[in-house]
Design brief:
three-stranded antiparallel beta sheet; DNA-binding; about 60% helix; homodimer; about 140 residues; mainly alpha
DNA sequence: CCGCAAAGGTTGAGCTTGTCAACTGTTGCC
DNA sequence: GGCAACAGTTGACAAGCTCAACCTTTGCGG
């Protein structure tokens, strides 16, 4: 049964290997978030926001694939730490624009720097493999 | 400012692109889990278990990077659906071996089939790129 | 201009995940 | 035999998340 002939296409194998990378990523995210005094969802929220482009809360909600009401609590936390501000919409007074504060932008930048760190498995690839990997993924994702 | 010279190494770019794939994966997991009547953590738990190799709960806990007490609840749910069974350890009566039931194995197999589906972005790659991608990842991850 | 449906956000209820501390039962070692 | 260590469960508690209900604002149609 363990020897049942499971046929995997090359890209399926590749996908499974990426799954392993993703899996190893999870504890790392929790750790990084903790180091910045954030919960993982708060980390994703701050990472998603663009300091140069304030957006309504509903936009953040759809970017995070979650409900508006969920974003309320998330933003409450970020606002309590002075990382973002709710600013009233100028044309439409229903919306609250999410503005990343100066401190928020700073935290976000350090965050991005940590998250961009490549897992050791990939780092050990040859320079040629690293470039090839990037090029293939670029072709796939534009 | 948008022109600030952000230097990214090729592998950092590749890692960021994989991050985008990972991000798109999240809603899909939630959807798949729901289709099988499971929550995402339950799905991961069942996926982690090996029908041919019963393991103690603590082993599952460390595989899931979480506390033993958390696994208790997770397994409660899976057991309530008849997907796994707690079997008393033969040599050590402290441990409960997690045995995947027949029905559990069936669900797990269908689950694996769905999860192995490759995201469309990767599926559109040329056959050569797909093989190259697999080979590079194999070199990275063994 | 009025009425009203629709949109943005917040609130509260309720469920699940997850952690920690305390506890039970079992084991193995000194 | 005593005792520290281990496996698992329980209870308390914080947080994420969704849904339904609600409030305010908006903009459209009559």
């Amino acid at each position: 049964m363990g020897s049942a002939a499971k046929r995997h296409t090359p890209v399926e194998d590749a996908w499974a290997l990426m799954g392993r990378l993703f899996w190893q990523l999870r504890p790392r995210m929790v750790r990084v978030a903790g180091e910045f005094g954030l919960s993982p969802p708060q980390l994703f929220a701050l990472k998603t926001l663009d300091p140069d482009n304030p957006v309504p809360m509903s936009t953040l909600a759809s970017a995070l694939h979650c409900d508006n009401s969920n974003v309320t609590g998330l933003v409450d936390g970020l606002e309590a730490q002075g990382l973002v501000e709710r600013r009233l919409g100028e044309h439409d007074r229903r919306v609250r624009m999410l503005v990343v504060t100066e401190r928020g932008a700073e935290v976000r930048a350090r965050l991005a720097a940590v998250m961009q760190e490549v897992p050791p498995e990939l780092a050990t690839l040859s320079a040629a493999d690293q470039k090839a990997l990037r090029d293939i993924l670029r072709r796939a994702l534009g």
